Amino acid sequence: MERLGPFGPAPLLAVGVSGGPHSLALAILASEWVAVRGGRVLALVADHGLRPGSAAEARAVLAQLGGLGIAVRLLPLELSPGPGLHERAREARLAALLAAAGAEGAPWLLLGHHRADQAETVAFRALRGSGEAGLAGMAPARPAVEALVLRPLLGVAPGRIEAFLAARRLDPLRDPSNDDPRFARARLRLALGDPGGEGPGIAALAAAGEGFAARRARMRAAMAERLAGAAEFREEGWARLDRAALGRDAVAEAALSALIRALGGGVHPPARAAVSALLARGGGSLGGALWRGGLVLREPARCALPVPARAGVMWDGRWRVLSAPGGTMVGARGAGPRIEGLPSLVAAGLPVLRNAAGEIIAAPGREGGWAVEFSPISGPLA
């Protein structure tokens, strides 16, 4: 934990707990670590609701954690069956965990991924043709809007974690889907054939991930330096970009990709070949962002449809509603009177508040009893 800090006095740590061996062990270790520092742990248990008896399993996990003196909170996910279930479940669970951590005022969210998980991630991404950034695997620390995501067990073999629980005579929950060959990750796990995570295959994959992670860190540092000299960011969610200062090398491509992802509201970065082509052209549209002249901004025609304006709602992958009157909707401003100091294309993509009749009741530069912040779903540019 110390290498992931600093944490300051009396830290509040949120821990995502499925009830499986790794997250259960993490909750115990985190609780003991934080207790001597005057802090506390809150275990967040998500019920995906996809299997008969999942609610009972979640209640059993809550009871087990409570018996260990760990505070708990249940998070119902209410997922529906369908394609991409595992991936959708992971995304929904992480979103729910982050939202709960933010609501509880916990600046850190701990997840129980271990060494074999990292190896599987590297192998899985390699099979999918991921680039260097993807082959770096999961980061030990990753910033999100609501909390800093930490993975303290990322270098620990799962066999050691199982031994820790066995020594304490604790019986964790076992998810049968982890070994279900219908799922790609389960097939990969079976192919690796190393449940303890201590064999040479897992070691090689984990080492490869560490090497790519070091390269990723160097690239991110270079990218941040390049953006600092080439881009001028504005609070309305756009930027002025100096093409000459940006350059034409690999660092320029990475910086432009991050810029497009954040200002365009994308969850995933655009394809590398598309970024390279955009850089060569010196302008154009990609990933929901528009590069025109010295401006990079959200392409107004690609803005999301209006959604109910409730506190915490993310609109268009870029704007988070902090507060708003009931019964209102947040959506794109569209064409309208000129706003001083803002290019018309930027103004068209700004969020506004509308009433039930569709009339704008709060627009940039006007009072309206609401508040939003530019908080791209992709997180910080680096």
Automatic annotation (TrEMBL):
Coiled-coil ranges (or none): none
Molecular function terms from GO: ATP binding; tRNA(Ile)-lysidine synthase activity
Catalysis performed (reactions): cytidine(34) in tRNA(Ile2) + L-lysine + ATP = lysidine(34) in tRNA(Ile2) + AMP + diphosphate + H(+)
UniProt superkingdom: Bacteria
Location of the tRNA(Ile)-lysidine/2-thiocytidine synthase N-terminal domain: 14-189
CC annotations in GO: cytoplasm
EC number of this enzyme: 6.3.4.19
Chief location category: cytoplasm
Subcellular location: Cytoplasm
GO biological process assignments: tRNA modification
Keyword list, A-Z: ATP-binding, Cytoplasm, Ligase, Nucleotide-binding, tRNA processing
InterPro entries: Rossmann-like_a/b/a_fold, TilS/TtcA_N, tRNA_Ile_lys_synt, tRNA_Ile_lys_synt_N
Family: Belongs to the tRNA(Ile)-lysidine synthase family.
NCBIfam families per record: lysidine_TilS_N
UniProt function note: Ligates lysine onto the cytidine present at position 34 of the AUA codon-specific tRNA(Ile) that contains the anticodon CAU, in an ATP-dependent manner. Cytidine is converted to lysidine, thus changing the amino acid specificity of the tRNA from methionine to isoleucine.
HAMAP family, per database record: tRNA_Ile_lys_synt
Name this polypeptide is given: tRNA(Ile)-lysidine synthase
Source species of the chain: Muricoccus pecuniae
Classification lineage: Bacteria, Pseudomonadati, Pseudomonadota, Alphaproteobacteria, Acetobacterales
